[in-house]
Each structure stands twice: as structure tokens, then as C-alpha cells.
Amino acid sequence: MGTDSGQSSFRRGVMSLVILALLKREDMYGYQLVQETAASSGGRLTTQEGSLYPVLYKLQEQGFISDKRVKVGKRMTRVYYHLEPAGETRLAELSQEYRELTQGVFQIMGEVMDHGEA
Length: 118
What we know:
The protein is α+β, with helices and mostly antiparallel strands. It contains 4 helices and 3 strands. A hairpin with a 3-residue loop joins strand 2 and strand 3. The radius of gyration is 17 Å and the shape is elongated. The model has no long low-confidence stretch (mean pLDDT about 90).
């Protein structure tokens, strides 16, 4: 069955939420987003740059974020990502959806744990 695609779809959704939340703090470039994700989650949530970029590109296509190329040094260019107003709205929606989803899951888990120990 499609559990791997289901898990990766869930992870992409979570990463969308995380990216939008981090960009609400400040504009960041890809590797910085990877580092901040790990640091801000206490190491509980990690990602690779390779799996981050498809999420970034999708958020761009949807108009939630934009990018800006900044020259760093003589030859290097960094792409900074910026949260757009539509992205702020989407962040609020995703945050609410995620909060309700996790509360429901933990409520069910609590009921199962309570019944299982009785």
C-alpha cells in the first residue's frame, strides 16, 4: 500500500508549516532553514536540503513565499526566501489545522491508553 507516500506527504505538510513559521521570524536561505529546523526543535525535527527544496518550490508556486538572490562574496549567490502576506494567512490556517489534528490524535491515544491499562 502507499504508506511511504502517505508518510512523506504528511512530512511535507509538516515541513510547509515549519518553513512558513521560520520565515515569519526572518528571511532565510535553504541551509539556514535546515539548521534552524533542527535547532528550534531541539533536534527532534531534521531535514535534508534535498527534501527541503521541493517544499520551498511548491510554496513559491502557491504564492506563499518569494525568493531573492543575494550576492555573497565574489562568486557565491544565496537565495533568501521571504514570507508573503498569503503565506502568513496560510501559516495561520495550517497552524490551526495542525493543532486540532494533534489534539484529536492525543485525545484518542489517551482514551486508548486509559482503557488499555484498566
